[in-house]
Write a structure and sequence with these properties.
Blueprint lengths: L5 E5 L3 H12 L3 E5 L5 H19 L10 E3 L3 H5 L4 E4 L5 H11 L8 E4 L6 H5 L8 E5 L9 E6 L5 H13 L3 E4 L9 H17 L5 H9 L2 H5 L4 H8 L4 H9 L18 H14 L5 H21 L3 H19 L1
Parallel strand pairs: 1-2, 1-4, 2-3, 4-5, 5-6, 7-8
Antiparallel strand pairs: 6-7
Helix pairs in contact: 1-2, 2-13, 10-11, 13-14
Bound molecules: nicotinamide-adenine-dinucleotide.
The site of nicotinamide-adenine-dinucleotide has 26 residues, from helix 1 and helix 4.
Length: 331
């Protein structure tokens, strides 16, 4: 497989900007296309926050950054790229139109990844000329700080690209997780969406405010989840008996049930406004960029702490720093 020196970023929003920041930090050049008139301003703001974040995250030498160039069309941006990352809105029709356009200029051996949060890659690749080179590489916001990337193949994807992805994304400081079974929502968003749906019900039914719902996570389970997932966490909650004891004690509650399962509250204008108002009140006057910097500082502190304990996402950071240190010594 080709080494990756140039990446096309199609869609330069929250996720495209985050990918670009991670790539240029790793000395890779990016070629961007986004049709929105304010796209470049938003993109540059993401790069600025990312630059600040990397300065705090890693003790490894950072080296020179890759370049960023803007292009007038997706087809132009795709030219000469060994990897093309699509991060356009979550609509299959828009994504498919982008693939049709970039396939007119992309190199035959260029790899195409979609950042989709949950659309099946088999659906995305259905009309492509070279469907075997498309796969999902689903990152998490902020892409420049969170290591997880879910790799998902469609029915027509050549498995060699998944194998390539495991190496490439690890090399740029990430934790590639191969979702072996193609399923809508993949792994992480299935779990996140279940929680979000329940949170919306609690707010809708006036059981709790947005602030109270978030406190119920941030001061308790959320702290555990930064270092162990639900399975290991509940294994420990079962004491000596582990997960078996948990299932014996709380298994019957699953049938009561304590959750609303698949129902979704109707997203009326009133309800959407109520949720939006409460979340804006929670922000306490901080604008999104200021809040992002607070989030980034906390994510950095957590990952550095985990590195000290040689655990979870901290292990990924340590491995990345070791690689960066070696690269600097080679220079
Ligand atoms: N926001 C998240 O937390 C998150 C996390 C993981 C994955 N994703 C996925 O990433 C993708 C992008 O989401 P986002 O949050 O960055 O959205 P966004 O709205 O911030 O960015 C999308 C960008 O695509 C641009 N765009 C629209 N049509 C385009 C086209 N034809 N060609 C090129 N650019 C076009 C828009 O102008 C916009 O800047 C979606 O598939 C989403 O599901 C989002």
């Amino acid at each position: 497989m080709n080494s990756i020196e140039t990446v096309a970023i199609i869609g330069g929003g929250v996720i495209g900007g985050g990918w670009a920041a991670r790539l240029i930090e790793n000395h890779i050049d990016v070629r961007v296309f986004d049709p929105a008139p304010d796209a470049k301003d938003k993109f540059d703001a993401v790069l600025a926050n990312a630059d600040r974040a990397y300065a705090g995250l890693t003790d490894a030498p950072r080296g020179s950054k890759g370049s960023v160039t803007w292009h007038d069309t997706a087809a132009q941006a795709a030219q000469g790229a060994q990897l093309i990352i699509e991060s356009v809105p979550e609509r299959p029709d828009i994504k498919r139109a982008v693939y049709a356009e970039i396939e007119t200029t992309a190199a035959d051996d260029a790899i195409i990844t979609s950042s989709t949060s949950g659309i099946m890659p088999s659906d995305l690749q259905a009309e492509m000329t070279h469907p075997e080179r498309l796969m999902v590489a689903h990152p998490f916001n902020p892409v420049y700080l969170l290591p997880l990337v879910e790799l998902v193949a469609g029915t027509q994807t050549d498995n060699k690209y998944i194998e390539w992805g495991k190496t490439f994304f690890a090399d740029i400081g990430m934790h590639p997780l191969h979702c072996r079974v193609e399923i809508a929502g993949f792994l992480s968003d299935r779990l996140q969406e279940a929680l979000w749906r329940e949170a919306l019900w609690l707010l809708h039914d006036k059981v709790a405010t947005a602030d109270e719902i978030d406190a119920a996570i941030a001061y308790g389970p959320g702290l555990r989840w930064a270092q162990m997932g639900t399975m290991q966490t509940f294994h420990l909650a079962g004491g000596e008996g582990g997960m078996r004891a948990m299932l014996a004690m709380f298994g019957p509650c699953l049938e009561w049930p304590w959750t609303k399962l698949m129902d979704v509250p109707e997203l009326t204008d009133d309800f959407v406004n109520e949720v939006g108002d409460q979340c804006e009140k929670q922000a306490a006057g901080l604008n999104p960029r200021e809040l992002e910097r607070i989030r980034d500082d906390n994510l950095i502190a957590i990952q550095r702490a985990l590195k000290g304990n040689d655990w979870g996402a901290g292990k990924t950071l340590a491995r990345y720093e070791a690689k960066m240190g070696r690269a600097a010594n080679d220079d």
